[in-house]
Model the fold of this input.
Amino acid sequence: MVQIKQSPTSINQWFFCPRSYYNKYIVGLPTFPNIHTIKGKAVHKVIENMFYNTKYIDPLQYVSKELNRVWNLETVEMSKEQETKEKKDALNILELFAFIHQKRMEGLVHNEKAKDLSHAWNLLKPRFQEKSYEFEDLKGIVDREEEDFDGTVSLIDYKTSNKVFNQLNQEYVRQARLYALMYYRQHDKLPDYVKINFLRFGEVWPIAVTPDMIKLAEIDLKFVQENTTSVEEKDYPMNVTKRCEWCDFKSECFKKEKQEVLKDVIPAVV
Done:
């Protein structure tokens, strides 16, 4: 019997596919970076580092220079042309974020809420970047926490999804309520919002936090805990979908002896 300390990521992974959870968290099979995780990691790091500055900097100039500093393909192999294209995509995301932030600061100055850009910078600076939480049964990192002028607390989750039309799917909503649960446990009060920041399109979708959200998060956590105490593969069924095509554990799940069973379900995988 095992008892894993869960996280919003691990809980979502179990709901997506118990077998992938088993391979990652029970067996400990390695996962490998891909260009999407590389870009997401770089974008998150640049934004995090930007707000460590204690006085105004030009956001557009900063994100370009900082992306060059943190960009690292790790073990991902691609042509120089493809890398240039992917890095430009990351820069496009960051430049939109920087542009919006600059206009927010200019708006505060114009409307006399801040005396200058340095004042506006510190007014808009988040309370925490990458706030970590850890409890006996749950751990996680919130990308950003901010408190408005009236005391409204928001937890921000950055997304670099490239979908043309964004949506609050079940994974995002479940993750949001688990973030809210961690904040509630730490502070003994609810945050006001969890906001999903779709960075690629400059869209921020707020989710108002309610007591029912906390209850649902506790249910999610307990349910996954109860279903992940076994070390037997048979207790973690596969959820075969098109997403199997880019899963790190594709080769493990679709071994030759399993192909006959699965080839009619998802031919592209086998």
